[in-house]
Automatic annotation (TrEMBL):
<feature type="domain" description="Plastid lipid-associated protein/fibrillin conserved">
    <location>
        <begin position="1"/>
        <end position="216"/>
    </location>
</feature>
<dbReference type="Pfam" id="PF04755">
    <property type="entry name" value="PAP_fibrillin"/>
</dbReference>
<dbReference type="GO" id="GO:0009536">
    <property type="term" value="C:plastid"/>
</dbReference>
<protein>
    <recommendedName>
        <fullName>Plastid lipid-associated protein/fibrillin conserved domain-containing protein</fullName>
    </recommendedName>
</protein>
<keyword id="KW-0809">Transit peptide</keyword>
<dbReference type="InterPro" id="IPR006843">
    <property type="entry name" value="PAP/fibrillin_dom"/>
</dbReference>
<keyword id="KW-0934">Plastid</keyword>
<dbReference type="InterPro" id="IPR039633">
    <property type="entry name" value="PAP"/>
</dbReference>
Length: 225
């Protein structure tokens, strides 16, 4: 069932591109897995919850604008969405890694969680963190490219791009030395709950606000490869 679920998620871009037929298939597989959950009380098995989990699929519509297509997709790419659980300190970090043509960065939230039932935890967000942008220090320029059937020679521009590359490298070293920006959450409403309905060493299925579903693979597991 887990392999069938992984196959069904292929090409859906974490659910963004999933057709209604694919969503129905995913929900059916999730329901079957939940009925065979080997860990009926996930909050009593914190060692299994512990570690980094990579988001493979979600029905949480508020994430879709972030993952969205359109003009921004060519400029900004979401490389990874993850959730890291520190069960010893009852801490959770949600992280989104972005990359663009000239830089990569991340946005994350730090939170604490409280156990409310054998399956449910209450999450209280404490701060948001905007990571320091890491600029690329290498600009790859092809010697030639074709435009409207004509071969364009770019070799005369190599000196200009070398200067740009040197400047980008200098800026990258300066920016990368700056600390990330931390933004505290002071609102009492900055929180949510999460219900874990399936858990083993490589797969976690959770349900959250608004009947949203989250499918996560454990980093380094066979499912995550």
């Amino acid at each position: 069932l887990k392999l069938k679920l992984k196959a069904a998620l292929y090409g859906t871009e974490r659910g963004l591109r999933a057709s209604s037929e694919t969503r129905a298939e995913v929900v059916e597989l999730i329901t079957q897995l939940e009925a065979r959950n080997p860990t009926p009380a996930p909050t009593e098995a914190l060692t299994l919850l512990n570690g980094k989990w990579i988001l493979a699929y979600t029905s949480f519509s508020q994430l879709f604008p972030l993952l969205g297509s359109g003009r921004l997709q060519a400029l900004v790419k979401v490389d990874e969405i993850s959730q890291t659980i520190d069960s010893e300190n009852f801490a959770v970090q949600n992280c989104i890694k972005f990359s663009g043509p000239l830089a990569s960065t991340s946005v994350s939230t730090n939170a604490k969680f409280e156990i409310r039932s054998p399956k449910r935890v209450q999450i209280k967000f404490e701060e948001g963190i905007i990571g320091t942008p890491q600029l690329t220090d290498s600009i790859v320029l092809p010697e030639k490219f074709e435009l409207f059937g004509q071969n364009i020679d770019l070799s005369p521009l190599s000196g200009i791009f070398t200067s740009i590359e040197n400047a980008a490298s200098s800026v990258a070293k300066t920016i990368s030395g700056q600390p990330p920006l931390k933004i505290p959450f002071r609102s009492e409403s900055a929180g949510s709950w999460l219900l874990t309905t399936y858990l083993d060493a490589e797969l976690r299925i959770s349900r959250g606000d608004g009947s949203s579903i989250f499918v996560l693979f454990k980093e380094g597991s066979a499912l995550s490869i």
